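pinging the channel bc i need a second pair of eyes. not urgent but kinda urgent?? the chain im working w is below, pasted from the shared doc
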Amino acid sequence: MAKFDENARPFSEKWLDERLGVVTLKKVLSTEYWIPKDINFLWAMGMVLAATFGLLLISGIFLLMYYKPDAALAFDSVNYTIMTEVGYGWLWRHIHGVGASIVFLIIYIHMFTGIYYGSYKKGREMIWISGMLLFVVFSAEAFSGYMLPWGQMSYWAGMVITNLFSGGSLEAYGLVEWIRGDYVPGDAFLTRFFMLHVLLLPLVIIGLIVLHFGTLRLPHVNNQKGEEIDFEEAAELYKAGKKKESKVIPFNPVFLSKDVFVMGVYFILFFYLVFFHFNFAMDPVNFDPADGLKTPPHIYPEWYFLWSYEILRPFNKDLGLIAFGIAQIALFFLPFIDRSPNVAPAHKRGLFNLWFWVLLADMIVLTILGKLPPEGIYNDLGLVAAIVFLLLGPALFVITKMEKKI
C-alpha cells in the first residue's frame, strides 16, 4: 500500500487535525470502524432509527413555530392553524405523526433482531442496556407528544397514565397532583409535557444515541452466525487488499452505502404513508377537543404501548401495577437472565427458538387485545397473555441454564 503523505492533506484539514484530531476521529468512527461481512439488512435498522429521529426533530421544529402550549389554544393551533392556515403545515404534521408511529415499529424490529441473534451477550451487555434506555426515553417522548394536540384521547390517556403514579392502594394522589400541576390535566400539565417533549427528552435521546453508538465501538457489531471474529487480523487483511479473505468491511464507505440503500427503500414506504395513509397514525377520537366532563367509551394509548397497557388491565389495581412495572423493566435484565454460553441465532438454540417466537406472538396478542374493550373473552385472553409474558422471564432462565454449548 502507498504510504500516506502528511503534506498532501489540505491545509484546512491539517490545521483542524492538529487541534481537534479529526483524522483520528474519522478513523475511529468511520473508515477504520470494522463491520462483519456476515450481516443482512436488519443491521441497518439503527441508522434508519437515527434518520427517522432526525426527521422527527426537523418536522417538530416547524410545528413548534405555530403550536400554542395553552389548554385553550392548543387544539385549534394543531387542527386549524397548522393544518389549514400554514403553508404545508399539514405535510409537517403528517411527517411528524407517521414518524412517531413508524419509529416504534423500527425500534421493535431492531430489538427483536438483537434478541434473535443474541446481540446482548458476551461483552455486549452495555449495547443492550443503552438500547433499552433509549426505548424507555423514546416512550416518554412519544407519550408527552401525544398530550400536545389536546384532543379527547390526549386528555384522558394523560389522566389514566398519571393516575398510575398514585401507587394503587398507596393512594399517593399528592404525587399525581404534583406531576400534573393541578387536580386534573390542565394548563400546567400541558405546559410541563410541552417542555419535556421539545427540550429535555430530545436532549436525553441525543445523549443516549451517542452512548449507544459508543458501546458498539469496543465489542463490535454481532453477526448472523454469532461467530467470534479477530477484528484486528481481519482488518489487516482488508487493508492489505485481501478483501475476499477478510471477514470485515469498513463502516465508511462500504457498510454505510448499504445503510443508505436500505434507508432509501424505507423512506419510499415512509413517504407513501405520509401522503396516502397518514390516518393510521392519528386517532379519530383525538379530533374532538379535550373535555374533562365527557369520558370516551374506551380509553387506550397508541399502538406501541398497547402490549404493556394490556398487562396492566386484567389484574386488580395493585397486582396490575406490579405486573406493569415488571413488564417495563424485564427486558433490561435479558443479558443476565439468559445463562446460555452460546452466541448464535435462535434457530440454532433449540428451546430458545421456541421461547423467542412465543415472546413475539404473545406481545402481538397483547397489542391486539389492548385496543379492544376489556369485556368477556377479551378480558380472559388478556389475563392469559399477561401471565404468559410474566412467566417468560423465569422460563428463559431455566431453558438457557440447561442449554448445551454448540
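so The mean pLDDT is 91. and The CA atoms of residues 151 and 287 lie 6 Å apart. — does that match what u expected or am i reading it wrong
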